[in-house]
Input
Amino acid sequence: MLISTDLRPNEARALEALFRAGALSRAALARELGLTRSTTGALVQNLLDACLAKERPDASDGPTDSPTRVGRPGILVEIDGDGAFFLGAYVGVNWIGALAIDLTGTVRARASADFTGAGSSPEKSAEAISDLVAEIIAKLPPGARLNGLNVSVPGFLADDGVTYHAPILGWHGVNLAELLPAALHIELPILLENDANAVAVAETYRVRRREEAGEDCLVVLIENGVGGGIVSAGGLHRGQRLGAGEIGHIPIGDEGFVYDAQRPGRLETFLGKDALFARYRHVGGHATTIDDFTRALERGEPAAVTASRDWARWLARGLATLTCILQPGRIIIAGSVSVVYPFVAGHVEAYLSTYLIEGYPLPKIEMSNAGADGPALGAAYLLHQSALSGDIRFPLRGRKRLEDRPLSPTWPR
Amino acid sequence: MLISTDLRPNEARALEALFRAGALSRAALARELGLTRSTTGALVQNLLDACLAKERPDASDGPTDSPTRVGRPGILVEIDGDGAFFLGAYVGVNWIGALAIDLTGTVRARASADFTGAGSSPEKSAEAISDLVAEIIAKLPPGARLNGLNVSVPGFLADDGVTYHAPILGWHGVNLAELLPAALHIELPILLENDANAVAVAETYRVRRREEAGEDCLVVLIENGVGGGIVSAGGLHRGQRLGAGEIGHIPIGDEGFVYDAQRPGRLETFLGKDALFARYRHVGGHATTIDDFTRALERGEPAAVTASRDWARWLARGLATLTCILQPGRIIIAGSVSVVYPFVAGHVEAYLSTYLIEGYPLPKIEMSNAGADGPALGAAYLLHQSALSGDIRFPLRGRKRLEDRPLSPTWPR
DNA sequence: TTAATTAGTATTGTAATCGAACAAATTGGA
DNA sequence: TCCAATTTGTTCGATTACAATACTAATTAA
Output
């Protein structure tokens, strides 16, 4: 009676539709998927048996389909969050974080720690991640099925296609995917992802408004380095070696605000945190933290205003380049330096429009929502997305069917 | 017995596999598709009945699968070219062209004419295209089934999502997809495509080597303007309004080789034909055509060498920007100015590597193959691709099944 | 000549889906 | 209050695409 270890195509599509909509009746789901009600009924029954979906007990809320409608009301079906869990982690320059989301995409547990990734070894990073993962697992319901760990790092895949470079962490040829399993003591699929890509997913995966669903989106992540994540047609544009979006390195001026002997004038040397503060000091400013800098901006300190306007001009130039090449519908500014953006939004948009041909559509520019969770959350979302799209690495099968056959990536408790 | 008007999924996959391989036995096709021989046999029979495939009479050539192999030899099945035809056209600044490919992707007819698109009206363009299309259809076998016309233009979709801007043609808010049907006197799906995108498809669609199949590729089309086409995972990256890849407009320097009051220093003002010749004259050169310029390069004329090296430096800078953002595996230089590239290939690669971080993979840089056919050929290939991937706008059904039901996009003769 | 191997086909079984019919639950009138 | 209209969910064949198996056909190697 029961067969394939992974989701069949329409089961995956049903879960995706339920994820997007939150909850649907069988009939509404049938319309969504283009199947008949009878087929959908059987489909839903399978998902219920597998503990991947459940019927919502309170049929009270009605704003799902249409209000005050004739006919027998449907029974709302929604994803059962406890059906599966996905782990995301982030190795940053100053801190490290991890979190778990459930099958509904809700964050169920998070943990973080100060960690000087730059001064430490990849082995230490693996151990730190392992500790955070253990901490998180303890907060999840007993018997929770873990479906993978995705770690986002500020780096890119090396030419060998296996190891990672993360100059900003001092990593050269590191294979975290090999280090982690040893430190974890759990068998779990391990993936790595670029941090800006992860943030891009975090900002775009959970789409509320319908018109934003298929929208192309560019996320610009500004810390000390500057990274970019490109989401097109709902998927990441990763490039040939999963290293697309290294926008911090595009040559854009002759000389940046901070000195760089190797590649002077690249975007990072104008937009990164160090660059901003170098410029700020150059025009007479004194603050050394982003918080102090924004407070100086709030009270209109001339040096801060000047530095932020200079920053805005180069940001606009970078965004113009990116817009010409990618034509995103939306650009999201993320990272700790992004808090400067609201002070100069008008300037950036004005500069940007002078760079583009008339008639060329201007992207919407927005601030990030995910905040510090972004990198780890996006990493976890990527696993969620893979599982819901039927990726065989993340077989979604629930408890009732579980008895028939052993499932490897389960956390025994 | 007969059912859906379009291709069923595995029929489409089978045609795609046959297209890539050229010809396959049923058994080889079964391995390719991951189906059983029995299923594939039925699948092939359907394609034969529909006149979309045919058995190759000479079983003589063997280099399809493996040589000197034991066992009963298979009967090679290949796509029946006459099963369907696709039209592609190109409206350039100086000329206009059109061609027809058959279901195997082979060019079966072409026609072109001098045409000053810049000085003329969109209505005239539509009429000129219509004339060329009539000329082409006359060369095709009687009863040929036409499956659409795709016109590539050096322009981009306007903000309204319907009309096109092509400043270089003097087009502002032109809806060629509405003008064309009236001029054509045939009912035919009409599509428009950016010319650089089309060239990108022309350069990448027909992949011979296996390792290049899924490769990300960037095509840089250098005429007077500079356009880019981005192919990722076998599909075009079109951006939000189908206008991605307008790389000629990225701000890259302070001032170009040619004066531009509106947006000085954008890539086009360094790399376009006018820019190259402006630089050439500036350093004392006299030639006025690309042919003369390359001849000057061949005999080592100092002015030509200087101009080409300056051109190479800015090309490298542009490619560095594009490589950081997109990380293509391959970059193809196309357009009439591209013939300069072989003279400075070494310089471009050397410059490029200085712009990129160490460890970052360098893309392969190649010259275009498609030549002047590129824009129209790519446009036609896009229709071919849509049809083979089961797009309902291009229903592939052959003659035997055709009797049961009227098919609109057929050319009555 | 025979064994091994591979290609193609005929037959049968099965999972996914559709279509039609029907019972259940609701709204809106009469 | 009752009944028509409407929508939901389910049941039960029929259909379809595919797999599994067994068989025949055509070739090479021994």
Q: What stands out?
A: Confidence is low (pLDDT under 50) at residues 1-5, 60-65, 399-413 of chain A.
